[in-house]
Design a protein that fits this description.
Blueprint: H1 2-18, H2 27-36, E1 43-48, E2 52-59, E3 62-69, E4 74-80, H3 88-97, E5 102-111, E6 114-123, E7 126-133, E8 138-140, H4 145-153, E9 158-164, E10 170-176, E11 179-185, E12 191-197, H5 205-214, E13 219-228, E14 232-240, E15 243-249, E16 255-262
Antiparallel strand pairs: 1-2, 2-3, 3-4, 4-5, 5-6, 6-7, 7-8, 9-10, 10-11, 11-12, 12-13, 13-14, 14-15, 15-16
Length: 263
């Protein structure tokens, strides 16, 4: 019985090791490769589930990796590059969002959509792939829960700026439908709150009645609509002598609380 099991294991191992080698590459794939990279004989092929074929080769003393579909359609070609060639804003993005990880590899990537930069980030035992356009702006980062949740909440923002706060959370400053906004996320991508600049016409009149009654002389500095998991409030900021006072009202205009800061 043991002998039969051993023979079975050997047979399976042989089948797995011989299921693909360079000679198994479809002729359509080889033809396309030769069209793109003629006279290149030192090629190593790897097949992936019989749907994708990857060629590793040298060109101009650079290591290149070209991918093709099983029908011979060119998918992409990438080559390793030093970090100094990658745009600084791309490297800055990785260091901002993955501060405990390190950059493992950098590539230039060409595919039918254009030219891109790829940064492979090593985090614990995983390798995360981040793609940037030719100018260094973020193109794709499927592992970034912060970015994914932000785009889900605000599909078409403009003038976006990410800031990592001292307490570890992220603040995003942007415009949404013409309004200036700030949204805060925890490091794990959990939404905390959104602040949006508001106008006097959006606030119930009862709130200003309260302010006029309790503050004889004041300067209105601004109004912010604050939306969080706990509540929705209007934050009306006024200046009284040398103090900046934040007065919070609910959506009906009822007073909730106040904070004071010396200027």
């Amino acid at each position: 019985m043991i002998r039969k099991l051993l023979i079975l294991v050997i047979l399976i191992s042989f089948m797995l090791s011989s299921c693909f080698n360079g000679t198994n590459v479809p002729s359509l794939v080889k033809k396309k490769f030769e069209e793109l990279y003629p006279n290149n004989k030192q090629v190593q092929w790897v097949g992936k589930e019989n749907t994708k074929y990857v060629a590793t080769f040298k060109q101009d003393e650079k290591t290149m990796i070209a991918s093709f579909s099983k029908y011979g359609i060119w998918l992409e070609t990438k080559s390793a590059i030093p970090e100094t060639i990658v745009p600084a804003i791309s490297v800055g993005y990785v260091k901002q969002f993955y501060p405990k990880a390190h950059i493992a590899e950098n590539y230039t990537v060409k595919n039918p959509d254009g030219t891109f930069f790829e940064i492979d980030v090593k985090k614990d035992t995983s390798t995360l792939v981040v793609i940037f356009d030719k100018d260094g702006k973020l193109f794709s980062d499927e592992n970034n829960a912060l970015l994914r949740n932000f785009k889900k909440m605000y599909p078409n923002p403009s003038d976006v700026k990410w800031v990592r706060a001292d307490d570890g959370k992220f603040d995003v400053f942007f415009k949404d439908q013409g309004k200036v906004c700030k949204v805060s996320f925890a490091i794990d991508g959990h939404w905390i709150e959104t602040q949006t600049l508001a106008s006097e016409t959006e606030v119930p009149e009862i709130a200003f009645t309260y302010i006029k009654k309790n503050f004889k002389s004041y300067e209105l500095k601004g109004i912010i609509f604050v939306k969080s998991t706990d509540s929705d409030l209007f934050d009306i900021v006024i200046l009284v002598k040398d103090k900046e006072i934040n007065l919070y009202f609910d959506l009906e205009g009822n007073f909730v609380k106040k904070d004071e800061t010396n200027k």
